[in-house]
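C-alpha cells for chain A. Residues wanted.
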C-alpha cells in the first residue's frame, strides 16, 4: 500500500518539476531529460550486472516499439497539459484514461463491457463537461492536451495487456525510455534552451522521480491487487492541489470539485465492476 502511495506522490513530483521547467524549456526537451535519466538504472543493470535479457525482445518488436512511440507522445502531451493548466485540473482530466479503456477494450480486444461500466463511462465524460464550463475559465488547449494524453495512456494499457504474455515488463519499459530519448533528442537542436546551473537539479529530478515512480508502481502491483492501486491513484488529486497551491497559488474553482467528484466516482464504479468481473 505504501509503495502505491509513494508512486502516486513521485509521479506528481515529476509533473511539478515538468510544469516548473516548462516556463523556460520545451516539453520535448523536458521529456528528453526525463527519458535519459530514467534509462540509466536499466543501463547499469544491463552492462554492470549482466542483465542482458532486458535487451531481448522475444516476439513482439512492433508492439514494443509502438508502445514506446505512443509513450513519447503521451508524455509530451501530459507535460504540455500541466504547462497550460493548474495541477489539480490537469490531474483530474488525466483520470479519464480509465474511461477510455472499456471503449478500447471493446474495439481492440473484443471484451464484454456491461451496462454499469458503460454508464460509468458516460457519467465520467459528463464530469469533463462540467469542468469545461462555458465561462471560459478552463484552458481549452490544455483540456485537449490532457484528454489526448489520457486517450493514449488508455491505448497503451490495452497494448500492454497484449504484450504482457509475450514480453518482459522491464524490456518494454527500457525500450520506452531509450526510444523516447532518441526521438526527443532528434528534436533538441530545434527546441532546446541551455539549462542554467539552477535548473540542472530540476531536470535530473524529472528523470529520477519518474524512474522511482515506475519502480514503486511495479512494486505495488506485485504486492496488492490492481484495483487497490487504481483507487490509491486517485489520491494524486490531493498532492496536485497541495503543490498547485503552495507553488503557483492555484486553488480549483468549485465547479472543478464538482466535475472531479463525478469523474472519480465514475472511475471507482469501473474499478469495482472490473474487480467483480475478475472475481466471478
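Reply:
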Amino acid at each position: 500500500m505504501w509503495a502505491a502511495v509513494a508512486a502516486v506522490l513521485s509521479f506528481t513530483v515529476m509533473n511539478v518539476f515538468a510544469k516548473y521547467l516548462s516556463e523556460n524549456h520545451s516539453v520535448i526537451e523536458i521529456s528528453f531529460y526525463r527519458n535519459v535519466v530514467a534509462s540509466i538504472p536499466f543501463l547499469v543493470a544491463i552492462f554492470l550486472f549482466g542483465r542482458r535479457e532486458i535487451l531481448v525482445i522475444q516476439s513482439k518488436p512492433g508492439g514494443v516499439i509502438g508502445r514506446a512511440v505512443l509513450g513519447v507522445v503521451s508524455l509530451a502531451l501530459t507535460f504540455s497539459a500541466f504547462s497550460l493548466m493548474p495541477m489539480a485540473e490537469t490531474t483530474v482530466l488525466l483520470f479519464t484514461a480509465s474511461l477510455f479503456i472499456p471503449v478500447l477494450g471493446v474495439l481492440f480486444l473484443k471484451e464484454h463491457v456491461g451496462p454499469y461500466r458503460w454508464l460509468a463511462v458516460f457519467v465520467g465524460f459528463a464530469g469533463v463537461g462540467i469542468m469545461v464550463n462555458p465561462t471560459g475559465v478552463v484552458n481549452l488547449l490544455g483540456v485537449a492536451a490532457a484528454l489526448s494524453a489520457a486517450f493514449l495512456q488508455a491505448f497503451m494499457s490495452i497494448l500492454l495487456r497484449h504484450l504482457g504474455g509475450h514480453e518482459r515488463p522491464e524490456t518494454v519499459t527500457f525500450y520506452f525510455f531509450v526510444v523516447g530519448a532518441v526521438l526527443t533528442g532528434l528534436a533538441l537542436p530545434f527546441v532546446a534552451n541551455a539549462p542554467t546551473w539552477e535548473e540542472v537539479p530540476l531536470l535530473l529530478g524529472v528523470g529520477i522521480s519518474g524512474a522511482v515512480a515506475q519502480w514503486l508502481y511495479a512494486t505495488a502491483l506485485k504486492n496488492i491487487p490492481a484495483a487497490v492501486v487504481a483507487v490509491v491513484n486517485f489520491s494524486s488529486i490531493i498532492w496536485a492541489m497541495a503543490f498547485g497551491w503552495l507553488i503557483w497559488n492555484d486553488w480549483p474553482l468549485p465547479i472543478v470539485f464538482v466535475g472531479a467528484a463525478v469523474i472519480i466516482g465514475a472511475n471507482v464504479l469501473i474499478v469495482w465492476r472490473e474487480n467483480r468481473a475478475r472475481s466471478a
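Residues 2-279 form one domain. The chain has twelve helices and no strands.
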